Each structure stands twice: as C-alpha cells, then as structure tokens.
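[recover] target loaded
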C-alpha cells in the first residue's frame, strides 16, 4: 500500500509538471477575482491582469493575493504586479503552480506562503525569453536577480545564478516545492534545477542543502 501511495504522489507531480510545460508554452486564460479580503489571480500575467488587480486594490480592503495555477506571462508585467503588491505590503500565496512571471509577481508579497489548501504547490523562476522563441533574453537575468535580492534581503546563491545560465528552454528553471509536495516528501529535496531539456522530473538536479524557506523565497515563519 505504501508503494502504491508513493507512486500515486509521483504520478500526480508528473501530471502537474507537464501541465506547467503546457502553460509555459500557451499561458492559460487569466482571471482576477476578489473575494472578501483576498484576490485570486490565475492564468496568464499581463497588462490586463495588472490593471484589474490595480483597480481592485484601489477600491477594496485587500490583505492577500493568491496566485493559482499560473504558468507565467509577461516578464515586465509580472514585475510590475510584484511591485504593486510590495507597495501595498500584502501577503502572497502560491497555490498549485506559480511559474515564470507569476513567481516574479509572487515575490512582491510582504509575507510569502505556500497554500495550505494545495499540498502540491510550487514556484518556478527563470529569466524572460525572446518573444515567440525558446531563447532566454539575457538582459532579464540581472533584473530578476536584483528583484529577488531586494525581496529576500540577500543575494542569490552562486549555484542559483549558474542554474539560470544553463536554461535552454522555457520549461527550464529553478523549482521550489512546498514542503508538503509529494515529490519533496519522496525524494527528500524541495529545490530542483531544470535546464528544460529533461523528459522526466527525476532528471532535474535536486539541491539537498537548499529550501524555499532557507533562501527566504517563502517567509521563514511559515510553519508548514
């Protein structure tokens, strides 16, 4: 029974992983919805999402932004969303997949958390890409690293920066898994370096000595 359970966890992660690949190539339709003191942002991150979120924050008493199953979008608009959130000192939550522009926007949170509603939540960071291509836009890497340093209060580790240089495709990146994530529980690692050419999740290089909390991608006070 334990073997079957572990296999089920792994298969669930593989399904989510390849969903992320699809979302990265064809970002899903976006949605920005306010409910009480929280806003949920799902799908693509771009100008329209920035404008919707900005309008909500200007008129509603919002304390939390939940990023739910977003494969990314525009690097520049993800950064603007993040800065807007930072100005308001809001909490951000990653629920499910939050990758690329979504992860950049997520970093704007004063407090940053993985969702307690979705155990298999994950963040993925990579530089921006040239429009319509698999070629990383090199000028976006220092912008990304500077943003991460500003939000975490510490420079990115050298191996993180080196991993960015090895990315060859949009699906490549540095993945941070929630501690409750099935793959993190199975393999004992929660940080993965993926170049983008891997066919299987298991081919990505695990970083046993690192975690989202240690690098302050997630607020250290989060106890789950």
């Amino acid at each position: 029974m334990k073997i079957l359970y572990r296999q089920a966890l792994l298969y669930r992660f593989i399904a989510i992983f390849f969903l992320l690949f699809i979302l990265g190539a064809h970002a899903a339709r976006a949605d920005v919805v306010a409910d009480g003191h929280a806003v949920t942002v799902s799908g693509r991150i771009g100008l329209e999402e920035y404008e919707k979120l900005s309008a909500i924050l200007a008129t509603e008493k919002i304390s939390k932004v939940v990023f739910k199953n977003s494969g990314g979008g525009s690097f520049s608009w993800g950064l603007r969303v993040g800065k807007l959130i930072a100005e308001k000192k809001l909490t951000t939550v990653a629920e499910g997949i939050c990758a690329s522009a979504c992860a950049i926007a997520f970093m704007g949170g004063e407090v940053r958390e993985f969702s307690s509603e979705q155990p298999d939540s994950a963040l993925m960071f990579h530089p921006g890409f040239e429009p319509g291509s698999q070629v990383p836009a090199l000028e976006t890497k220092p912008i990304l690293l500077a943003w991460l340093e500003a939000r975490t209060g510490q420079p990115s580790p050298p191996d993180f920066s080196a991993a960015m240089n090895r990315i060859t495709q949009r699906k490549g990146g540095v993945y941070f898994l929630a501690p409750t994530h099935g793959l993190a529980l199975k393999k004992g690692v929660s940080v993965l370096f993926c170049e983008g050419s891997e066919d299987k999740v298991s081919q990505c290089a695990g970083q046993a000595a690192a975690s989202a909390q240690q690098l302050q991608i997630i607020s250290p006070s989060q106890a789950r």
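[recover] notes: The domain at 2-206 is CATH 3.90.226.10 (2-enoyl-CoA Hydratase; Chain A, domain 1).
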